[in-house]
Amino acid sequence: MSFFITKVILGTILFLSGLGATLTMLTLQGKAEKKTSPTTLRKLHKFFGFIFFLLLLVLAFMGLRYWASVGDGISTRAVFHVVLALALFIVFFTKVVIVQFFKQFLKMAPTLGLIVFCLSFIVFVISGKFYILREYYSAPTAEISETSSATEITDNSTTKQIQGRIGDGKTIFDSKCLPCHSPDTEERKIGPSLMGLLKKDSLPHTGNSATVENIKKQLIRPALTMPAFKDFTEKELADLFAYLRTI
Fold it and tell me: What is the dihedral of CA 17, 18, 21, 27, to 10 degrees?
């Protein structure tokens, strides 16, 4: 099971546990006549809250691990996701502290609980829902025909062919690609293996032909949660493709 599918599943359970905690809280606070006893509702609320807290810690660890592996290449959407997740953690922690140690502020707990639920919903949508839509409902991008030779990239502005250096390409791969992709094994890391990528019939996820131009397009406008690499020079691309043809 891939990193992102695992994260989506855990995020879904996190959201559902937050929904359960919110519904039990609203039932306790808002309904005069309750079909379930208040004691049972409180136990359910604590149970959902405990599950929510554990999953929040696990997902925070996974998110930090992903951020550390990607580094400065993290996307704007991912940064927004991290900021909201941090706010979610702070509000949730504040609510727990008030309930446990500052009961004079207990009347604030329901409001904080609703804020936690709203933040968890937003975080889930911009992460899990985004992944699901990109994975299963987005059409493959149009293919671009390959115009490059084995280790050469054509510079349209000068019509010169840039010869790629395998060693320099490996350096670029180790810096930008290796944290998420394996070059010498089919084992999946955060992203799919890139071993033999240019020898395959199609690219992972998009299904487009495994050509130089389609890989360049993937680097500029990536599918799913892969960060974009728009700043590669033609020389760097030539070096990278020279190395990719050796793995």
Answer: -120
Asked whether 129 and 198 are in contact (CB, 8 A), the reply is no
Query: Using CA atoms, how far apart are residues 216 and 232, in angstroms rounded to an integer?
Result: 10
The alpha-helical segments, DSSP class H, found in the chain are 3-30, 38-70, 76-101, 109-124, 130-136, 166-172, 212-220, 234-244
- CA 122 to chain centroid: 14
Orientation of helix 234-244 relative to helix 212-220, angle to 10°:
120
In whole angstroms, what is the distance from residue 156 CA to residue 147 CA?
11
Residue 124 and residue 239: Cα distance in Å, rounded? 38
The predicted structure's pLDDT at residue 131: 64
pTM (whole model) above 0.85: no
DSSP string, 57-98: HHHHHHHHHHHHHHGGG--HHHHHHHHHHHHHHHHHHHHHHH
Give me the mean pLDDT over the 73-81 stretch: 75
